[in-house]
Amino acid sequence: MHRILVKKQSGGINEKIRLASSKSESNRALIINALSGFGGELQNLSTARDTQTMIRLLKSEDSVADVLDAGTTMRFLTAYFAITNQTKTMTGTPRMCERPIGILVDALRSIGCEIDYLAKEGYPPTQLNGFKEQKTSEISIRGDVSSQYISALLMISPLLPNGLTINLMGEIGSIPYITMTIKQMEAFGVKVMADWDSKKLSVDPQKYQATSYQIESDWSGASYWYSVVALAENDDVEIELLGLKENSLQGDSVIVNIMSELGVKSTFTPDGVLLQKTKANDTFEWDFTDCPDLAQTVAVVLVAKKIKGVFTGLESLKIKETDRVLALQNELAKIGGTLEEVVAKTRYEVNSGGGWTATPTFETYDDHRMAMSFAPLAMISDVIIEEPGVVAKSYPSYWEDLGKIVSLEELK
Question: What is the pTM of this model?
């Protein structure tokens, strides 16, 4: 498919959706299980392309590890292959090779891993040449660039002869993702000492214990269903999302609180969470530092519902699958919206006011979240999504699930 027409939905909605499982939890569990000797039983692993790429590369004996466009897979496997003394060339798509990895490589080099850049300094592709001996048991790393660097280092720390202490410099972004890593490590028998006041994470030398681990459904994927309910013009709307937990490890479960301000009531059930339509606030302000993957979803809802918004914590969006800030600015304009940077790199305002393009066509920029964030606008108007196949990265069944409530038509 190259384009898909999502036709305007009208009438009530009463549906149950079994969400895809969490890519974030799956990828961490796969690395930890590999570090425990592949002895555990991982249940409900994600079918997302990123996770399937991780599974394939963990099994592969090839000298080249091509992660395609999977950033988490690139970062986690770089640390895993390096510390397990494997010789690998790490590479990916052209966009993947534009996404920085220098902070992680510097940290691994300081520990004792031998890594060379094969093209541009600070970016993939890289050549991993093994791990001979531990040079230091304490490192410092910026906390405001990518929590995935920190998680990658945490997961390999127990295997180091002297353990590892990680000092986090500056502000710390996406703390819930670091906490998720710590909780999953604990599920496999490893203790992490986290002192958030002093910004210090310490792991003594330990052995992971193989165990059975159940992956939760994906709260990031849930956000698009919250968007559907928020944007629905009919009040007779109920969607139950199956497989979600009230006390989740996933930072994006904060969508419950965000959408309570934007017109969606959440009620937890024995099977998941029930979404119902309610009244939205007139204004909205949120710091996305700990949940950057929700920013696109929320921006679209604000513009469509003509709610004035203020966003902070978007710093990491420019180094994702695409420059998500620029992509949002381009595509929101098609529904009369703006995302304006009012304080350099820290504060953005979301506004609406202009008219909609007739049957707007949205570019996806090789970014799964662009496709899934804009498709719920079909609650208001027919929309066309370019290159809809990008959803395979995190939520392969997205169009199948969305097709339960709207009509879809493939376009040439």
Answer: 0.84
